[in-house]
Design a protein that fits this description.
Elements: H1 3-10, E1 19-25, E2 30-36, H2 38-48, H3 52-69, E3 78-85, E4 91-97, E5 101-106, H4 123-127, E6 130-137, E7 144-149, H5 156-166, E8 171-179, E9 185-195, H6 201-213, H7 217-222, H8 227-234, E10 241-247, E11 249-250, H9 256-264, H10 268-277, E12 281-284, E13 291-294, H11 296-308
Helix pairs in contact: 2-3, 10-11
Bound molecules: zinc ion.
The site of zinc ion has 6 residues, from loops.
Length: 309
């Protein structure tokens, strides 16, 4: 029994906790991920005061990042999904580290749009035409960056296209967020199925059929089904084997120290003009909304640091 399996048995994840699972099927031809992320996305909504269509767009992106974080080998590595589009949201960024900490934000959180023709939150319209980039920081000199253009701007299809076109890994992705009438998050989750090298056409076709006939993911999760049930159902009879189960949460890595360093890095000239303005400086972390207050004396000390650097 692997270490991961032992941990999982000794530490059952509570029903109230968000988590991601990873497994394989078809003799290793298929790699599968599934996630339940309602609490994580609700926390993002609460921090950023996102309107429903933005909650859906950000929640889908963060859910995808949470699942992709399970591929990282070290807790210190991270993976980010960045979306830039012509729509009113502007951009979305979500980052997951290897320990299940996920953070994210949308450039414009207060976008409101009519529902689309299917009666759903119009994420595609809110994002518009654009590009999706995946950045993997694996602790090497340079991060790995891959980009593809958005194909539907609904995020799941765009990510599937990215995996297939940029990483040559044919993939199926489903991501969904349901929002309550009071704008809080009802349910959120997703799955990713990937064909590994050597997968047969037969397996590819079978998975495509399974995904097509699978119920609407958010409805399925809202009925109380778990990520395990999602993958067991999608991969029924295909020797699905669960390899890992990891709790995930909204958690930012910002610290006062990090924000101070960012402020120092704006350079002497800008620090001098801040000091000349004579007012305390307030900084807000984009990713989590946490505020940091610096007195004018502290800014003066930063100027000293900038000069000696
Ligand atoms: Zn932060």
């Amino acid at each position: 029994m692997s270490e991961t399996m032992r941990d999982f048995e000794n530490n059952p994840v509570s029903q109230l906790e968000d988590y991601v699972i990873r497994g394989t099927a078809c003799d290793g031809q298929v790699l599968a991920f599934a996630a339940t992320t309602s609490h994580m996305v609700e926390e993002a909504r609460r921090r950023h005061h996102t309107k429903p269509v933005v909650t859906a767009a950000l929640g889908r992106t963060m859910t995808a990042a949470a699942m992709m974080g399970l591929q990282l080998k070290q807790d210190s590595e991270d993976i980010s999904i960045q979306i830039k589009g012509s729509g009113p949201i502007g951009g979305i960024s979500a980052v997951s580290d290897g320990a299940g900490n996920v953070r994210g934000y949308a450039e414009n959180p207060d976008v409101e749009l009519p529902l689309n023709k299917k009666g759903k939150l119009d994420v595609a319209e809110a994002i518009g035409i654009g590009v999706m980039s995946i950045v993997k920081d694996l602790g090497l000199k340079e991060p790995y960056v891959g980009s593809t253009h958005l194909v539907t701007s609904e995020i799941a299809e765009d990510l599937a296209y990215y995996f297939t076109a940029s990483e040559q890994v044919p993939s199926a992705v489903a991501l969904g967020v349901l929002v309550n009438p009071d704008e809080s998050v009802w349910t959120s989750g997703g799955y990713i199925l990937q064909l590994l090298p050597g997968a047969t056409d037969e397996v590819a076709e079978m998975l495509q059929e399974r995904c097509t006939s699978f119920p609407q993911l958010t409805t399925y999760l809202a009925e109380g089904h778990t990520p395990e049930e999602v993958l067991n159902s999608l991969l029924e009879g295909l020797d699905f084997e669960l390899m890992a189960r990891v709790p995930v949460r909204f958690k930012c890595n910002c610290t006062r120290d990090r924000v101070e360093r960012a402020l120092i890095s704006i350079g002497e000239k800008d620090l001098v003009s801040l000091i000349e303005e004579g007012e305390d400086v307030d900084m807000t972390c984009h990713y989590c909304g946490q505020g940091y207050h610096f007195t004018i004396d502290e800014v003066k000390q930063m100027l000293e640091k900038a000069r000696t650097q």
